[in-house]
Amino acid sequence: MNAPSQTDLLIVGGGPAGVSAALTAASLGMRTTLVEAERIGSKLYAIGALDNLAGGWTNGPQLAEALTADMERLEATGACTVVLGRAVSVGADEQEAQVLLADGRDLRAAAVVVATGVSTMGIADVDWVDAPGLSPLAPLWRTMPKALQECGRIVVVGADRPLGTWLRAHPEADVSLHVLHPESDRYKTEEVADDPRVHLEETTHATVVPIPGGVRVAAQRADGRVHTFAADVVLMNAGSKPAGLAGLYSDTDGYCPADAQDRRIMIAGDLKSARMQRIAIAMGDGQRCALMPYYERALLPSREGTDS
Ligand SMILES: Cc1cc2nc3c(=O)[nH]c(=O)nc-3n(C[C@H](O)[C@H](O)[C@H](O)COP(=O)(O)OP(=O)(O)OC[C@H]3O[C@@H](n4cnc5c(N)ncnc54)[C@H](O)[C@@H]3O)c2cc1C
After folding, report:
1. Residue 147, Cβ neighbours under 10 Å: how many?
2. Can you identify the CATH homologous superfamily of domain 123-236?
3. Which of 15, 87, 97, 124 could be joined to 112 by an S-S link, Cβ 3.0–4.6 Å?
4. Does the domain formed by 9-120+240-299 have CATH 3.20.20.140?
5. Does the C-beta of 278 come closer than 6 Å to ligand 1?
6. What is the pLDDT along the chain (308 residues), one digit of tens a residue?
7. Ligand 1 centre from 247 Cα, in Å?
């Protein structure tokens, strides 16, 4: 199946970057098809507190709902079609760009914006922890405090920034988070070090094995001593990895630099690089990606009645 007829731009990913690309493209008279694997703004639903976004947004769900309303409005006017599905690969030749979905659908248009962001690192991605038989583990940032109500000690793997966001978003959460982290995460622990709910443990290597009712942890410290303890639950907080697609050029770290791709393939948002992962930057990227084919008219098919 091709994208709905006369699609100018395919967009993969319905986060801040993808939705901004669709809105900007619509404002320029371009028709888009947006592919989303989960739901519009999916990541934003788990951001409990926002304080760096112009416009008075104070939490992620509020923004996600506004982005969903934007897409519904674009769909109602015919400017954009939203396709629910998981893209697996992207490609381009001189004439067009192509996106393949996991269910076999084949979408084509003049150009494509890939804005698939990043996904949470699983336990298998972390080289300083062995956890045989424990995958997959839920990410802390997607876990609601009420799911942890009955838990005693909770092990958190990694001290990445979402730990601070989660604690600020849930000041009422009565939890005991035992945070295992490597030395390289030490600078990130400053913002949570004074929170009485957090117990930081720097480790060179940890082993986590399931036992009845929970897990047993053996955390080795830099001086060689091993701290062994039991816990009820393990949650991931070790950072993110790029959620790229087959067919994209990626650096050794897996990220997909925008300027290294085929000219019909544009990259927006968190997928570009491990740095600068912010909502406003993703939105600006999405806009820029929609403007590029508009200015570079050779990328778009000529259509009767279109302004020159
Ligand atoms: C806990 C947490 C707190 C944060 N707090 C802040 C903050 O306070 N301020 C701030 O500016 N930023 C914050 N961020 C970062 C911010 O969420 C990201 O920078 C922003 O969401 C990036 O937007 P994006 O559109 O590039 O990617 P995303 O928002 O990740 O959107 C990507 C979309 O693509 C979809 N997708 C992925 N793969 C596929 C596929 N193969 N096929 C189809 N669809 C796919 C996903 O389902 C998702 O909806 C936070 C992030 C986290 C995790």
Report:
1. 12
2. FAD/NAD(P)-binding domain (3.50.50.60)
3. 97
4. no
5. yes
6. 455 557 999 999 999 999 999 999 999 999 999 999 999 999 999 888 899 999 999 999 999 999 999 999 999 999 999 999 999 999 999 889 999 999 999 999 999 999 999 999 999 999 999 999 887 899 999 899 999 988 999 999 999 989 998 999 899 999 999 999 999 999 999 999 999 999 999 999 999 999 999 999 999 999 999 999 999 999 999 999 999 999 999 999 999 999 999 999 999 999 999 999 999 999 999 999 999 988 887 667 665 544 44
7. 21
